[in-house]
Amino acid sequence: MNTAFFNYLFSARTSIQAKIFISFGTVFCLSILLVSFSAYYNSSSTIKRTTIDNFTASIRHAEENLRIMLDDIDNMTTVITTSKEYITDPLLNAHDQVTYEGFMESKKAEDFLSSLMAYKSYISRIAVLGTNGKVFRTGGSLLSRSVIRERWAQELLASPRKQILYNATDEGTVTVGRPIYVAGEPLGVALIDFNSAILNKVFDIQPSTDMLILVVDPSGELVYRSSEQVVATNIIFTPYADVYKKLQAAGSDHTYRVGNRTYFAMHVTSSYTGWTTIGLIPENVLMREAYVIRNQIFGIAFLVLVAVLVVSIIVSNQITKNLKRLHKSMRLIRAGLLTAKPEVNSKDEVGQLSEVFTSMMSEVRGLLDDIKRREKQKRETEFKALQSQINPHFLSNTLNTISYLARLQHVPNIEEVTNSLIDLLRIAIRREEYITIREELNYANRYLDIQKYRYLEKLRVVYDVEDGSYDCYTPKLILQPIVENALDHGLSGKKSGGLITVRIYRMGEHMIFEVTDNGMGMSPEQVEALRQRAPTGKEGSTGIGYHNVDERLKLRFGDSYGLSIYSRSGQFTKVLITIPVLREATVRDIERLDRG
Question: Which positions fall inside the HAMP domain (predicted)?
Fold first, then answer.
């Protein structure tokens, strides 16, 4: 699917407008989707984590408030159990509470308990139960003498420290109890009750009515529940029993499904009371703000995407509108109407291209008129002059190229070909033997400008010229024949990917021209045969082949100069042209000597 998409996108048959629209749309769509999903994921994670952290912090804060209240109650139980005058002595006395002395002791003890209870609105009752049946109490309902014999009271009496009991006296209260000992002997227990309704204030922390808080004592009894829909007194009889068990087993917070709803459950177990506070947040409540943000993000993303697509349609249409006008003019020119002019008024790249094309066609028309006139008047003279300067084979190739372009394209690129040919002729007929390396490169470039229409897309030329080399001099027409041989012989068998590399650099007092092609190459035997073969004067399109160039350089500068050939069959051919470094003053001296 991806391959088909890219094949369609980059297909030559797909219009530029479609390519721009599809490319813009695809890139922006993917970018917007990526940014939107990233923003939604990050925001939802942050909101979820913040909500959970805040809820957990609220639970811990409630636990801390409860601990402070229980600490206060615990301190009161300590005061009670250690009060010799008001508690332990009356418990040790043998006076029956129905006697006057017993009544006064009870009143004294209960006044003491009342003083402790003062200003403690959350305390509903303070009581002392003696093992001898005595009961001292303030607040709340009466307690019978038999309460001390109940199981929970006996367990508390046997405990060495305080205990926190829920609903111990079956009145829906939370009781903090501590045993009373004197000389290691149990005398009774001190009890302080506070109504479980106070827990409603302590744990009234859920930010949403859909959230649920359960406080469970070690036996599973529900000390507190935030929802009236939970009517059971023990958690094992509620739908959340499995959640409680899994939290106890896993020891960490998780997501659980209860009925048809998914909850995120967290729990905090108090080391002070042993109670476990469970917070349950429905997933839809937890993600409510995230869903709102998600809808906003995707709504904005959709609007941005629509805007981008509309803009891309407008821009692509504007660009292709001028291209279509330019294309229409080219089609008219190809049909033979050379006076056709594109109606493009923009100043952008397309407008500049249109101006260049119009200017080029104007010059081409002038050149065509000039060429026709010259050919009519001086055909034979010009032909003989060209024959005397350049190889007929090269002339034939060049004229064939021009004819090929004129026939297929109705002269859209004849300016470049004609100018290149004119430059070649001018350099060839110049009388100077030496020209600058810049001019020699220009000559080779002009030749390649013509040949690129013959080789179309299969040829690429790379130049690497050392700084300071352009203004040095060289005998003219030594580079072009080597480049021509690389084209005609080295790259003739390649259908595509042809590469010619031209390097020019100094090596001591020598100037090196290095021409490398990645063509068919030659075997060692072929290289040796080429080195040994006598020059025939037919290798190059200018009448100057490998051997002619080599012979010219050796005759001019000596046997240490000339051509070197390196090749590997099927891989490459490299030709090195070695001449001395020639400055302008040196060339002038040589020319004076040549003139005698």
Answer: 317-369
Helix (H) or strand (E) holding 578: strand 572-580
Query: Any idea what the Cα angle at residue 37 is, between residues 33 and 39, rounded to 5°?
Result: 115
Q: In whole angstroms, how far apart are CA 473 and each of 230, 428, 430, 432, 558?
A: 103, 16, 15, 11, 17
Q: How far is CA 325 from CA 236, 318, 329, 413, in A?
A: 83, 11, 6, 19
- Kindly give the pairing relationship between strand 498-507 and strand 459-465: parallel
Question: Can you give the length of the chain in residues?
Answer: 596
CB 180: neighbour CB atoms within 10 A?
23
Tell me if 139 sits within 8 A of 109, measured CB to CB. no
Whole-angstrom distance, CA of residue 432 vs CA of residue 392 = 23
Q: For residue 161, what is the DSSP state?
A: S
Amino acid at the residue 463: Y
Digit-by-digit pLDDT tens for the chain (596 residues) are 456 555 555 555 566 667 777 777 777 778 778 887 787 778 777 777 777 777 778 778 888 888 888 888 888 888 888 888 888 888 888 677 667 777 888 888 888 888 888 878 788 888 888 888 888 888 877 777 788 888 888 888 887 776 776 665 555 678 888 898 888 888 888 888 877 677 777 777 665 667 788 888 888 888 777 777 777 878 888 888 788 888 777 766 677 778 778 887 878 888 777 888 888 888 777 777 777 777 887 788 788 878 877 887 787 777 777 777 777 888 888 887 777 777 777 777 777 877 887 888 788 888 888 777 765 654 444 334 344 444 544 554 565 566 556 556 666 566 667 667 767 766 766 677 889 999 999 989 888 888 877 776 678 889 999 999 999 999 988 998 899 888 887 777 777 778 899 999 999 999 999 999 988 888 888 888 887 764 434 444 433 478 888 888 888 888 899 999 999 988 899 999 999 999 988 888 888 876 65
Predicted TM-score of the model (pTM): 0.44
Category of 325 on φ-ψ map: left (φ > 0), alpha (ψ -120 to 50) or beta: alpha
Eight-state DSSP code of residue 489: I
On whether the CB atoms of residues 517 and 499 are closer than 8 A, the answer is yes
Please answer whether residues 576 and 514 qualify as being in contact, where contact means their C-beta atoms are separated by less than 8 angstroms.
yes
**Rounded Cα gap, residues 210 and 479, in angstroms:** 89
Q: What is the DSSP letter of 535?
A: P
Closest CA to 530 of 465, 500, 575: 575
Cα separation of 89 and 429, whole Å?
140
Domains and CATH numbers, the chain: 82-191 (3.30.450.20), 206-286 (3.30.450.20), 455-596 (3.30.565.10)
Q: How far is CA 392 from CA 325, 377, 395, 466, 549, in A?
A: 42, 21, 5, 35, 19
CA angle 580, 585, 589 (to 5 degrees): 85
How many CB atoms neighbour CB 91 within 10 A? 19
